[in-house]
Design a protein that fits this description.
- With 179 residues, the protein is α+β, with helices and mostly antiparallel strands.
- The protein has two domains: 3-103, Peroxidase, domain 1 (Orthogonal Bundle); 106-178, no CATH class.
- The chain has eight helices and four strands.
- It has a four-stranded mixed beta sheet with strand order 2-1-3-4.
- Helix 7 links the parallel strand 1 and strand 2 (138-145).
- Helix 2 (24-40) crosses helix 6 (90-105).
- The termini are far apart.
Length: 179
């Protein structure tokens, strides 16, 4: 079975259970915390995906990191994932839970990359662009700074990207001159 469909099933089950218990917000925060932690720690991600490392060891590491910092139900869910030997896809499960939660709440996530930090005015303009494009009233805008794009911006929304950076415009000009 494909990893995406397995991750979807686990995430959907967790979301349904969280709704039943009335703790969707807490579990959402837990999944964001988990995903951020795994994304920022390459050794942790590699250990979780390594088939040579025993499940009991992975479970012990996960408990050492997250026990007491997340909701007991989320902790129990992670234990179940570990017992089912699905630790290698736990980051995908967390990402899928976040996606399902956002879909349910009508939240659109977008990333904007600029050369300098955004001002409040620019932040509002980017949010308005996303709202106009998607029709959503709730936008979660992640801001990244990358001086290599020289100027302009790159806006990523789902699988779409608007590249209005000076670097890409210079590359396009270079291609025009070469052909």
């Amino acid at each position: 079975m494909a990893v995406a469909s397995v991750a979807f099933r686990y995430a959907k089950s967790l979301l349904d259970l969280a709704q039943e218990k009335g703790i969707t917000e807490e579990v959402h925060r837990d999944m964001l915390f988990f995903k951020t932690t795994v994304d920022q720690s390459r050794p942790l991600l590699l250990m979780l995906k390594n088939p040579v490392v025993r499940s009991s060891k992975k479970d012990a590491v996960l408990n050492a990191i997250f026990k007491g910092k997340i909701n007991p139900m989320t902790s129990a869910f992670i234990d179940i994932i570990a017992r089912k030997n699905r630790e290698s896809i736990i980051d995908e499960i967390a990402a899928e839970y976040i996606r399902l939660y956002d879909e349910k709440k009508g939240i659109e996530r977008a990333t904007v990359i600029t050369t300098t930090p955004l001002t409040d005015e620019l932040r509002a303009k980017f949010k308005a662009m996303v709202m106009k494009k998607t029709g959503s009233q709730l936008v979660d805008l992640t801001e990244k700074v990358n001086p290599k794009i020289i100027g302009g911006y790159i806006l990523q929304l789902g699988d779409q990207q608007v590249d209005a950076s000076v670097k890409s415009q210079l590359s396009a000009l270079k291609l025009q001159f070469l052909s």
